[in-house]
Design brief:
globular, mainly alpha, 434 Repressor (Amino-terminal Domain)
């Protein structure tokens, strides 16, 4: 079972691979600083804001609904 921060990190890495883009490109496209993305991916952030998640989704050219449409975010898979 994952916590929300771990699921978010996994989803970002999954989409980076799927879309063949780098963290740097995602940072540029989303407006989220590269250092923030790095902290999210390395799970050094204790609480991720929804606004940051929305910006990350936009960086992947997705809606936040599309971004969250992953088994990673099913409540049964999260330790909340």
């Amino acid at each position: 079972m994952n916590n929300v921060n771990h699921a978010l990190a996994l989803r970002i890495n999954e989409l980076l691979k799927e879309k063949h883009i780098t963290r740097y490109k995602l940072a540029m496209d989303s407006g989220v600083p590269h250092s923030t993305l790095k902290n999210i991916i390395h799970e050094t952030v204790n609480d991720n804001l929804l606004s940051t998640t929305i910006l990350i989704a936009r960086g992947f050219e997705m809606t936040v609904s599309q971004f969250l449409d992953s088994p990673l975010f099913n409540e049964v898979n999260l330790n909340i």
